Amino acid sequence: MSTLVFGHKNPDTDSVCAAIALADLKKKLGEDIAPAMQGALNPESTFVLEKFGVAAPEIVTSFAGKDVYLVDHSDLSQSPDDLGEANILGIVDHHKLGDVTTGQPLECWIWPVGCTCTVVASMYKYFGIEIPKDIAGIMLCAILSDTVIFKSATCTDSDKKVCAELSKICGESDLDALGIEMFKVKSAVDGTPIRELVFRDYKDFNMSGKGVGCGQLELVDLSIVDGIKADLEKDIADLKAEKGHHTVLLMLTDIMKEGTELLVASDDEAAIETAFGVKPVNGKAWLPGIMSRKKQIIPFLEKILS
Ligand code: MN
Ligand code: MN
Questions:
Q1: Which one of the ligands is nearest to 78 CA?
Q2: Spacing, Cα 156 to ligand 1 middle (Å)
Q3: Are residues 177 and 198 in the same domain?
Q4: Most CB within 10 Å of its CB: which of 17, 28, 74, 262?
Q5: Separation of CA 103 and ligand 1 centre (Å)
Q6: Interval between CA 148 and ligand 1 midpoint (Å)
Q7: How distant, in Å, are the alpha carbons of 70, 154, 180, 211 from that of 84?
Q8: What are the residues whose beta carbon lies below 5 Å from ligand 1 (ion)?
Q9: How far is the CA of 143 from the centre of ligand 2 (A)?
């Protein structure tokens, strides 16, 4: 039985590509291992894997009795429901340490950088294994995606340095053009059901017993969602009721204007105002300079709601 490596629920490009790359590295280090993902590929990840001719990991949702590595998360809320029955060999991540715990010592690579693939690329170097061209391409795209083409507050010099090395290996020299090509795919909303858009990049959090959901759509232009904004607002209110959450937010992030229109469904709108210094009007607030859920939204909400 082979070990499986997988990222968080609602997999994004980093979760998928980091799983593929870590499985490749570990295989070359002698482990019997395969990448997996907890759900279907999103349009951006589909584009990235097709562009570099890399096969999609298998979708797996149950891991009881298996040896596993986690990438791109260490929160139980983003893990498979039966993770407690799996044997966690290691975690490779770039988020704050979550509530996943283990019964055995584990291999742990959690760095404060912009993307899990920055850590995985560094692991190749550490172990002296050459990065294949196709894997370099998908890791490069994952870093451009997670760091919003180096514009996100989460982006570090290590991310930029690793991208420069990966771009040499895979032969993609115009990183801005590659990034924008990818974000155009990510921005497409036509024909996609509203709930699917809310869930495209969505995470649940437990903040001192209060359920908080936060989705994000990264758009090359905010006007792309003009025609569906009212539907999105209604849907996050419905979702809040269905989950019994305290708050559900949807970040509509304009990656060119570098700001976020926050759609708010909350029991306590005043808390949102306190957290971000902008009063929501009709459930909406424009937050200039805010692009990162992890660094600029979640910690501030956590502080107010705790
Ligand atoms: Mn992710
Ligand atoms: Mn990530």
A1: 1
A2: 16
A3: no
A4: 17
A5: 25
A6: 12
A7: 13, 30, 39, 21
A8: 12, 14-15, 72
A9: 8
Q: Is 207 exposed, middle or buried (0-12, 13-18, 19+ CB in 10 A)?
A: middle
- Tokens 């988020």 found at: 95
Residues 61 and 139 in one domain: yes
Instruction: Name 90's bridge partners.
Output: 69, 107
Q: In 10 A of CB 18, how many CB atoms?
A: 34
Cα angle for residues 289, 299, 222 (degrees, 5° grid): 35
| Dihedral angle sign, alpha carbons of residues 293, 48, 5, 85 | positive
> Does 286 have pLDDT greater than 90?
yes
Q: Please tell me the number of the ligand nearest to residue 117's CA.
A: 2
75 Cα: distance to centroid of ligand 2 (angstroms): 13
How far is 12 from 42, CA to CA, in rounded Å? 7
Ligand nearest to the CA of 146: 2
Closest-approaching ligand to the CA atom of 15: 1
pLDDT digits (tens, 9 = 90+) for 188-236: 898 899 999 999 999 999 999 999 999 999 999 999 999 999 999 999 9
Q: How far is the CA of 15 from the centre of ligand 1 (A)?
A: 5
| Domain shared by 8 and 130, yes or no | yes
Cα 281 to middle of ligand 2, angstroms: 31
Average pLDDT over every residue of 17-21: 98
The answer to whether position 189 is within a domain reads no
Give the C-alpha distances (Å, rounded to integers) separating 104 from 67, 82, 90. 12, 17, 10
- Ligand lying nearest the CA atom of residue 94: 2
Residues in a beta bridge with 202: 215
Structure tokens at 32: 């019997």
Alpha-carbon span 221 to 203, nearest angstrom:
23
Rg (CA), the chain: 19
Residue 249 placed within a domain? yes
**Residue 293 in domain:** yes
CA of 113 from ligand 1 middle (Å) equals 12
Closest ligand, as measured to the CA of 119: 2
Instruction: Kindly report the pTM of this predicted structure.
Output: 0.88
